[in-house]
Amino acid sequence: MKKILMFTKYSRMGASSRLRTFQYIPFLESNEFQVTVSYLFDDKYLSSYYSKNTKSVFKIAYCYFKRFITLFSVKKYHLIYIEKELFPYLPSLFEWIMSILNINYIVDYDDAIFHNYDSSNNKLVRFMLSKKIDKVMKYAKVVIVGNNYIYQHAELAGAKNIELIPTVVDISRYPRLHKKLPCGQVTIGWIGSPYTQKYILQIKSNIIDLLKNKKYKMVMIGANKDIVNHFPYCNIEVLPWSEDSEVSYIQKFDLGIMPIPDENFEKGKCGYKLIQYMACGIPVVASSVGTNENIINHLGCGLLINEKNSWYDSINRIVDSDFVYEDFSRKARLSVEDKYSLQIQQDVLLKIISKVA
User: Fold this and answer.
1) What SS3 state is found at 84?
2) Helix or strand (DSSP H, E) at 72
3) What is the mean pLDDT of each run of 10 residues along the chain (357 residues)?
4) Between 20 and 30 A from 161 (CA), which of 103, 137, 220, 262?
C-alpha cells in the first residue's frame, strides 16, 4: 500500500481544503493508498479569521513550527500532496529542498494566490516573494489547477506537467430535484463566508432594487448576521453555514447568484457556488468573470452579467418564463453530472497520483 502525505492549508472546515483534498480521501483509500493529512491551520484559527478577531502571532508561529517538524517525515511517503504552498508568506525553500532530494510532490491550486505576492501592497512582499508560487509550480512533479487562468500561469511559470481538475461536488449529497417556478415569492440565494460577503455588498444597489419588488426575497448562507444592516427594509434571511445543512438550505433557493469583480485574483476563482446551485437544479446568474463563463456555457444553465446584461434584467428574464426557468434547471443538473461531480473527477485524480506515487 502506497503512502501519501497531504499538506492542507486548513482542516475540513476550510472550503478549499475540504473540496480539493478531504473529499477525495475515501476514494483514494479504497484504491489502496494510505493517506495522512497534516493541516496548517485548525478550525479555531479559521473561526477567528472569519470573525475578524486579531490573529495571535504565537498561534501562527506554533502552526508553522508543527508543519516544520512534520517535514522531517516526508521521506517515509511515496508522494507529498501540497495545497498551494507549505508556508504562506515565506520563501519556497522547503519545496526546493524536496525537489533536489527527489521527493515527488504534487501541488494544487484553486485560487490565484500568486497575486497575494506579485500584487501585494507591501513592497517587501513583492520584492521577496513575487515569483514564489512560480518556483513552487516549477519544482512540482505535477501542478493541478482548478481553472484555465491558473493553468496559463502555471505554463508561464515553467511547470513540467499541468492537469486541470475543477472544484466539484459530491453529487450523492445533492438529491435530484425537478425545480419549477414557485407560485408565490421567488427566493434568490447566495452561499459564501464572512470573507466573501464583500462581493454581495459590491452589488448592493442591484439587490435593493430587486427586493423592492415584493415577489422577491433573498437568503444568504454563511454571511455575518449584521450584513442585513446594509439592506434596510429588504426581505433578507441570513442562515449559518455548516457542512451538514448547506445542501438542504440551497435546495430552498429558486435562483442562485455569484457576483465577483473582474479583477486578477477573482479570475482564479473556481465557481464552486455555481456548481452547488446547479447540483440542486437551480438556474444561475453570475458575473462574466473567469471560469464562471465556462461553467454556465458548458450546457447553458443560466445568464452571465456583463455590459449588456444587468442583474435586474437577467434575474427577471429567468423568473418571467416557466420555459426558460425549467430549461436552465434541467441543464444545470446535467452539467454537474457530466463534468462537475466528484464521481467524475476522482478517477482523474487517481490516475494522476498513480503515475507519480
Assistant:
1) coil
2) none
3) 97 95 98 98 82 78 97 97 98 97 97 97 97 98 98 98 98 91 95 95 96 96 96 96 96 97 95 97 97 94 90 96 96 96 98 96
4) 262
Per-residue DSSP letter, 183: S
C-alpha cell at 127: 520584492
| Residue 237, pLDDT score | 97
First-to-last alpha carbon distance for the chain, in angstroms, is: 11
Domains of the chain: total: 2
Check whether residue 38 and residue 132 sit in a common domain: yes
Q: Give residue 72's domain range.
A: 2-168+342-356
Q: Write the burial class of residue 251 (CB in 10 Å: 0-12 exposed, 13-18 middle, 19+ buried).
A: middle
pTM of the predicted protein model = 0.94
Residues 333 and 187 in one domain: yes
Please tell me whether residues 163 and 182 are part of one structural domain. Answer: no
Contact in structure between 222 and 190 (CB atoms under 8 Å):
no
Residue count of the chain, please give it: 357
Q: What's the helix, strand, coil split of the chain in %, to 5?
A: 45, 20, 35
Are residue 137 and residue 190 in the same domain, yes or no?
Answer: no
118 and 159 co-located in one domain: yes
Do residues 288 and 304 lie in contact, with contact meaning Cβ atoms separated by under 8 Å?
yes
CATH number reported for the structural domain that contains residue 205 in this entry: 3.40.50.2000
pLDDT of residue 54: 66
DSSP, residue by residue, 288-326: S-TTHHHHHHHHT-EEEESSS--HHHHHHHHHT-HHHHH
Q: Which of 330, 336, 194, 225 is nearest to 275 (CA)?
A: 336
| CB neighbours of residue 157 within 10 Å | 18
Same domain, 128 and 237: no
